[in-house]
Write a structure and sequence with these properties.
The chain folds into two domains: 148 residues, Glucose Permease (Domain IIA), CATH 2.70.70.10; 140 residues, Sandwich (Immunoglobulin-like). The strands form five sheets. Strands 1, 4, 5, 6, 7, 8, 9, 10, 11, 12, 13 and 21 form a twelve-stranded antiparallel sheet that branches. The N terminus is likely disordered. It contains two helices and 27 strands. The chain is mainly beta. It starts with a helix and ends with a strand. The relative contact order is 0.16. The chain is elongated and about 70 Å long. Zinc ion binds next to loops.
Length: 332
């Protein structure tokens, strides 16, 4: 009798403790690098700037189109690398190592914090406008959580001033969605929602109409969706897409971490019709793959050889928004 009571009370307490401990470990671990800001680009969006198409390996925070806005250390840490560079993709960049094992990277800076002036000024005097990468072999240059590490700018590929922020492991083999580590309540509240604009079926483009019927050709349906989170009038990339045929999960993709070696493989996720210019961003997520990719969790579309399908697509983003989209398919 006594033992039963003990088990009943022990179990919920244990679960509760586990949830609190695991949540505080990741969530809110890092401070947003810009105060009272909002996100203008998300993790693993498609980019065609620079020499070749690539993934966006971090998150962009608005600096309200201004240069000189204070960019802050996400956590206590020390400088492991400075990239002094007006051009390139990242521009002026600083990388910090933190005790939790992660590194944070801050790019497109107009200039660095005064603390690093001694080395930056010396190198600029020596090398002028050439790109210089400085690796620090000691932990001498330290920053505290929230301390200013530099000022916003548009060096590198940035067309407007903003803060590009990344989270990597200490060997810089993986990049992680930085928003997994940030308490989103610390960002400026803005209007947002998920939507599908167009769909590609067997490479043909259609406007998405809920409940409509579309025709596919080929062995199995090759569907791509032009999906976004609309946030403060910007179109941002989403995090997770699930494709169902008659309520059976056939394709599942989660874009929350990526090996850096896949940096230049954006077509693993995006259809060739994806375009990105300074004015237009059209991102088509492929819901089929012939490759073995780390971010594809379920890949069974090719097994289906039916002539008609009830299709359901569930899409969610890192901010907690989600949407469900349905239509039917018939073989033409
Ligand atoms: Zn960026």
């Amino acid at each position: 009798m006594e033992q039963k009571v003990w088990i009943r009370y022990f179990f919920p307490t244990f679960l509760l403790l586990f949830i609190i401990v695991s949540a505080s470990h990741a969530f809110g671990q890092f401070e947003p690098p810009v105060s009272n800001s909002y996100v203008t680009a998300t993790f693993m969006e498609f980019r065609s700037t620079g020499n070749s198409p690539h993934f966006h390996m971090g998150v962009d925070f608005s600096t309200f189109l201004r240069e000189g806005v204070e960019i802050r250390a996400a956590e206590d840490g020390y400088v492991v690398r400075l990239e002094i560079d007006e051009g390139g993709i990242y521009g002026n960049t600083i990388v910090l190592q933190h005790e939790n094992g992660y590194r944070t990277l801050y790019a497109h800076l107009q200039r660095f914090a005064e603390k690093t002036d001694f080395i930056v000024n010396m190198l600029k005097a020596e090398f002028g406008k050439q790109r210089v990468v400085v690796e620090f072999l000691s932990d001498d240059v330290k920053f505290q959580r929230g301390e200013v590490i530099g000022y916003s700018g548009k060096t590198g590929e940035a067309t407007q001033p903003h803060a590009h922020f990344e989270v990597r492991d200490k060997n810089e083999r993986y990049a992680y969605d930085p928003l997994k580590f940030i308490d989103l309540k610390k960002l400026k509240p803005v209007q947002m929602g998920i939507g599908i604009q167009s769909i590609l079926i067997s490479d043909k483009e259609y406007q998405y109409v809920p409940g409509a019927s579309y025709v596919f050709s080929g062995d199995y349906p090759k569907i791509s969706v032009e999906a976004y989170t609309e946030l403060a009038k910007n179109l941002l990339g989403v995090k997770e897409i699930k494709l169902y045929f008659s309520n059976e999960l056939v394709y599942h993709i989660i874009l929350d971490e990526i090996p850096l070696e896949l940096y230049e493989k954006p077509y693993a996720v995006y259809h060739e019709k994806t375009t990105m210019t300074s004015l237009v961003y059209r991102a088509f997520y492929k819901l089929y793959s012939e490759e073995n990719l780390p971010f594809v969790r379920v890949n069974r579309v090719g097994e289906f050889k039916n002539s008609a399908y009830d299709v359901k697509i569930e899409i969610s983003d890192i901010f907690g928004n989600s949407g469900v989209f349905t239509f039917t398919l018939k073989k033409g």
